[in-house]
Amino acid sequence: RPGLALCAGCGGRIQDPFLLRVSPDLEWHVACLKCAECGQPLDETCTCFLRDGKAYCKRDYSRLFGIKCAQCRAAFSSSDLVMRARDHVYHLECFRCAACGRQLLPGDQFCLRERDLLCRADHGSPPDGAAARGPRSP
Length: 138
Known about the structure:
CATH topology of the largest domain: Cysteine Rich Protein
Strand order of the largest sheet: 1-2
Number of helices: 3
CATH class of the largest domain: Mainly Beta
Number of strands: 8
Radius of gyration: 24 Å
Mean pLDDT: 82
Number of domains: 2
Largest sheet: 2 strands, antiparallel
Helix content: 10-25%
CATH superfamily of the largest domain: Cysteine Rich Protein
Shape: rod-shaped
Distance between the termini: 69 Å
CATH architecture of the largest domain: Ribbon
Low-confidence stretches: 129-138
Order of helices and strands: EEEEHEEEEHH
């Protein structure tokens, strides 16, 4: 209800004829609801994301808080196809053997050694320098 609500952005009383409500309990002056990162006005025409009481546009929220590729560290777009290995997520083009650079495709056998993906041909060989230190443990 205008006049009784406090703006989540500036803290002032909202006496305007219109207010914007985000989530069930946060109300904003129309002029105060802006992306905390880029300042883009967030109104009824665009998607608004909240984190720790701050509002973000979709682009900045994805860039700051979205899942990132384990290889290139770039964010994913909603249209990206991904590959997963344990709790790591990769762009298709980033899902490559760390030793030979071959792109790994669905159905390929691979090994995940720490953060490195290794194709079947390369995961049986010891890491660089391991042969000079002695035999591998089982």
